[in-house]
Amino acid sequence: MTEPTIAGEPDIDTDRRQELATRLEQRLREVTERDAYDSGLGAAMNPTPKTTHQQSHIERTPHARTRRDRPPSRPFIRVPSREMGMRIALLGGTGDIGEGLALRFGRDTNHELLIGSRDPEKARDAVAEYKTTLEDHTDSVDIKGFANEMAADRADIVVCSVPPYHVGDTVEGVADSLDSDTVLVTPAVGMKGDADGLHYHPPSAGSVTELVAERAPDEVPVVGAFHNLAAGALADLETDLDLDTLVVADDEAARDTVLNLAGELEGLRALAAGPLANAAEVESVTPLVINIAKYNDDMHDVGVKWV
Fold it and tell me: What is the pTM of this model?
């Protein structure tokens, strides 16, 4: 919203009314988002306390945006390795899937991790907890906490691991921090729930991955990955993984970057699954594995292995 320009001395009453109106508008928006999510558009809740997966996404209308020019912060390495570390930002890195990926990346790679949050203090608190957890699993870890925008601005790879009703706003909120040398990764899945379980519920774009691509600046390559992984299994470093993750992308270099990155995690095999147009098929596996966990007491953190 564009603030009016007022000549002369400020009108205190007008300023106060404007402040209250802005707060009310923000509060109404938050309530509307939460109610829409709870009503079923994003009911990707854990069917049991033992199973945690990525949350779903609420669709929003794309908006045009003007990006600011900025010099590149560092050379971008398209095919990462343990010898050449990158900066990986986890937006919403204080949540379940963000925590799981942060701990696995922190233990298994030498990449610099940037934990993002709308509240930078919350990000720093999470970093302190992650460092404590990682003390028994690695000699050193490079991990810092920032606001989402600052984390994205510094990163080579940005993983949008935010709750479902914030995915679109988060991508748009950090758009000025992204450029063609940034790979934007989304693990989000659209789901709705009923008494029988969870069901795939994609947005009109066809999949959440394609929706993220619509919201991101045109020059930013988008990759879908980490959709079908249980966050609980990722965060439990005592759990040995033996799972696959499917990777979809239109940009081959970005796809290869994420394939190599995911492959660095012990026990995780990354497989190419085609372009973004195939994202719906990949995402739709997630409610299936959650339902399997729901109906089988001895299968808590279900994953997929392709043979």
Answer: 0.75
